[in-house]
What does this fold into?
Amino acid sequence: MSNVLVVGGAGYIGSHMVKMLGRQGCSVTTLDDLSFGHRDAVLCGDFVQCDMGDRAVLDAVLSGGFDAMMHFASFIHIEDLCSAHWLALQSLMGGAGSQAYNLGNGQGFSVQEVIDTAQQVTGRSIAVVNSPRRAGDPARLVADSSLIREKLGWQPRYADLATIVAHAWAWETRQT
It folds into this structure.
């Protein structure tokens, strides 16, 4: 179907997207420096390990004629994140123009809530340095995902923070 480059595809988020793309019949190339990723987490397609500053390797990889490129950063459940990207890729391949979407499940979590939940789920303490909010930091920030819900019909399936952390922790413990 599509020829997709996944940058950072050996990490937690990227490896899930690589797996989903492979299951959907896409030709996938993963580009990762393995600073945080795991080579054995990439289950299909081609894999290129390189320093992102290596211009010669990047030029060679990017000459591969990709239909789409993906790179990730979002704190929502991995399956919700992947399904949103899959819907966006299908839309692009169907002829729609490029569009930026906010992804979120409608709930915001404070840093303290994430730390507390991670400690509960993992059974490990996390070293924390409490300090005042930085200038410009919002008191509350929640992604408005109404555009992707309306345009692509995306619906997140996981809203519970403990479930999100537990699934991420299970993946991480399998990699070590």
Observations:
- The two ends are 33 Å apart (CA to CA).
- The chain has six helices and four strands.
- The chain has a mean pLDDT of 90.
- The longest helix spans residues 78-93.
